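[step 3/7] fold_predict: job queued, chain A
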Amino acid sequence: MTETYSKSRQRAEVAFGDVQKQFFAKDKAVEELDAFVLAREAKTLRLREARLSKELQDRASATSALLAKRARAR
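[step 4/7] structure written:
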C-alpha cells in the first residue's frame, strides 16, 4: 500500500534524510581518519624498531672493532 503524505511531511522526510546523510558521511570520515592514524602509528613503530636495531648492531660492531684494535696493540 502506498501512502500519500502532506507536503510538510514530505519536506520533513527529505530534511531528515539529508541530516542522516551528513551524519553518516561524518562517521565515515572519522573512520577513515582513524585508519590513517593507525597506519601512521604502525609505520612509526616499524621505523623505530628498525632504527633501534641498526643502532644496536652499529654499537656491537664498534665495540668488537675496538676490542680487536686493543688486542692487536698488545
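[step 5/7] annotate
The CA atoms of residues 39 and 70 lie 47 Å apart.
The longest helix spans residues 7-73.
exit 0
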